[in-house]
Amino acid sequence: MSSDWPLGYGKRILAEVDSTNAEAARIAGSLAGPEWILGLTQTQGRGRRGRQWQAPVGNFTATLVMRPTETPDQIALRSFVASLALFDALEAATGRTDWLSLKWPNDVLLKGGKVAGILLESAGLGQDVGHMAIGIGVNLVAAPKPEDLEATAMPPVSVFGETGVQLTPEAFLDLLAPAYARHEDSFRTLGFAPIRALWLSRAAKIGEVITARTMRDEVTGTFETVDAQGNLVLKTAKARETIPAADIFF
């Protein structure tokens, strides 16, 4: 492991895996502490709402698996922790912050295109979460072809395509893991408030009109903030709408 690898975090690198989140579920019960799983080839990757996550060889597909003790609503806030860690790792890799921004609830943008996504999954009964998996995909070397995505999907980009920076998945993990550990320490010690404030300072389209599409309806309004529970807050012509989960369109 690199000298900057965070204390207490395990690391396993797999030449091939169906899904790093699936592997996390398989090994969670045997772990003594949090562990990063990096799949150099992932054959059955998935994104939000069961969508396929395409990952050519050379792109980054990894999962952090842990056994948290908080309530499910607090555990879900780790998507913001992971977003901040991704921002920091991409900043370290590219040397740029002006090209990076965060898209609610779980994407990272590079020059306005989607370069990374996060998928949180957990297992347990009721308020007792047995384990949580934070799946992370980053287009390091290549982006999916637009024709292979949904028509309304955010245009995909890659780190190499936009910046010329070449980075292996192993090298990116060595940037991401320490960044995550720093923000995780802040979250555990100080709560969500400082995570939320930093996330908002890096948010895409704040103060602008966006559209939130849920499973039931569509809301268009000005992106005001993210509240203390991580919900999106839009100001519409009629009222302020609080939205816990949605796909966002600019």
Topology (elements, then pairings):
Elements: E1 10-14, H1 20-27, E2 35-39, E3 60-66, H2 72-75, H3 78-94, E4 100-103, E5 107-110, E6 113-125, E7 128-138, H4 159-163, H5 169-190, H6 192-201, E8 209-213, E9 218-226, E10 232-235, E11 240-243, E12 247-249
Helix pairs in contact: 3-5, 3-6, 5-6
Features:
alpha+beta, SH3 type barrels, 12 strands, BirA Bifunctional Protein, domain 2, 250 residues, single chain, five-stranded antiparallel β-sheet
Indicate the CATH class of the largest domain: Alpha Beta
**The CATH superfamily title of the largest domain:** Bira Bifunctional Protein, Domain 2
| Coarse shape | globular
* Physical arrangement of strands within the biggest beta sheet: 1-2-3-7-6-5-4
Secondary-structure arrangement, i.e. CATH architecture of the largest domain: 2-Layer Sandwich
**Which fold name corresponds to the CATH topology of the largest domain?**
BirA Bifunctional Protein, domain 2
What's the rounded overall pLDDT mean?
Answer: 91
Low-pLDDT regions: none
Gyration radius (Cα, Å) is: 17 Å
Helix/strand class: alpha+beta
H/E series: EHEEHHEEEEHHHEEEEE
Count all strands and give the number: 12
Strand content: 25-35%
